[in-house]
């Protein structure tokens, strides 16, 4: 890895060796200590790479081996630096674009409020604005834990809050603190036994329709009344008195 980095910084030339004996030139270059790599045999040629600073030492060896060397490509920092010098405005535009992108990513541009059912999300955004969480705020200056604590203190109706910074967006989730509310009046509903082997003595329906037996042993889910006025049922007949409790006839005076 370090060798590849060094070759990139010093510059690399991709060459093609042509001639009757290209292998002879390669052997002479290796014997002289020149840096050659990625050698590849092709029809009538040998392709490879050499360090840019070693290329000038290759020319005398070409005369000895009776070969010719052609440059097929240039890579590395020295050649890239030359292109940059020829296009200064392109480089300046790239740097300015990178700075503008970094500046934009360092700010919050959208504040999203979730979980507000009874509260107005705009009112929560207004409180967050006073706390410093607003479009255009530096995200590196925001502390989500501090914002959560201060929001619950400023808005008593918020029992819990969570602040997350996702890129250029801030997501605020709230859980409202609602008071207990009694259940609504159900009105006329069915009356159903909720236990087994219960005894229903009398069912008097003032409004609705009687359903099921009114006396005797009952089972779960039986009996009750259903909506719809049907009038009053006949009153239950009184049970006869036993003989021992029968009234005694009055004696004549």
- Shape call: elongated
The chain-level structural class is alpha+beta
Succession of helices and strands:
HEHEEHEHHEEHEHEEEEEE
Supply the CATH superfamily name of the largest domain.
ACT domain
Which ranges are low-confidence, i.e. pLDDT below 50, for 5 or more consecutive residues? 224-246
Biggest sheet, open or closed, and with what strands and sense? Answer: 4 strands, antiparallel
Question: What does this 3D model show about the protein?
Answer:
This protein folds into three domains: 2-80, 2-Layer Sandwich (Alpha-Beta Plaits); 107-176, Roll (Ubiquitin-like (UB roll)), CATH 3.10.20; 186-231, no CATH class. Helices cover 30% and strands 26% of the residues. The chain has seven helices and 13 strands. α6 (121-131) packs across α7 (144-154). Residues 224-246 have low confidence and may be disordered.
Topology of this protein?
Blueprint: H1 2-10, E1 12-19, H2 22-31, E2 36-42, E3 45-51, H3 59-65, E4 67-75, H4 77-86, H5 88-105, E5 107-108, E6 110-114, H6 121-131, E7 137-138, H7 144-154, E8 158-166, E9 169-176, E10 198-199, E11 209-210, E12 217-218, E13 225-226
Parallel strand pairs: 6-9
Antiparallel strand pairs: 1-3, 1-4, 2-3, 5-7, 8-9, 10-12, 11-13
